[in-house]
Amino acid sequence: MSTERTADELSISNHPDLIALRERYERAFDTPQAWASEGLILIAGLYAAISPWVIGFNAGSRALAVSDLVVGLAVAILTLCAAASNLHLHGLTWVAPLMGVWLIVTPWFVHGTDITTGLIISNVVVGACIVVLGSAMTGVSMRGPRAA
Asked: What tens digit of pLDDT does each residue of 22-57 get?
């Protein structure tokens, strides 16, 4: 009797617990609420990235414009990657609310920024949206494995 196993049989990706975990995440993220939060946070991240040009930040706000561009693109990329992967990146969704908090406080922390009312309102509103929606995504990802 041979006890040798093939590489496919020994692969962790075929483990029944991992397969069940993937199925639970798929069910948790295959709801209208999850789709809405992912879509809205993607839009919020893209808005944050282009807001310096939409709002018309002045020349004294270049450092803040770069910060908004980088953070907005990071939120959008994180959202796209989390939406595209069924298991691998959902553990990183907790980063999105932190990026939202950063957007809220950057007008006062980035040195050499000429603060205007439009700049503050834009950053605070989009940052708050990212905090709320990112928290919703994090809640779905934390609840996902236990939902079934």
From this structure: 666 666 566 777 778 888 999 999 999 999 888 877
Give the pLDDT confidence score for residue 92 in this predicted structure: 78
Of 86, 89, 124, nearest in space to 104 by CA? 124
Give the number of other CB atoms < 10 A from CB of residue 24: 18
Compute the distance between CA of residue 133 and CA of residue 75 in angstroms, rounded to an integer: 11
C-alpha 9/C-alpha 6 separation (Å) is 5
Q: Is the pLDDT of residue 81 over 90?
A: no
Burial (0-12, 13-18, 19+ Cβ within 10 Å), 72: buried
Q: What is the DSSP string of 29-75?
A: TSSHHHHHHHHHHHHHHHHHHHHIIIII--GGGHHHHHHHHHHHHHH
Residue 70 has pLDDT above 70, yes or no: yes
Residue 102: is its pLDDT beyond 80? yes
With 0-12 CB in 10 A as exposed, 13-18 as middle and 19+ as buried, what is 15?
exposed
Q: Rounded to a whole number, what is the distance in angstroms from the first to the last CA of the chain? A: 39
Which residue do the tokens 């439009």 mark?
118
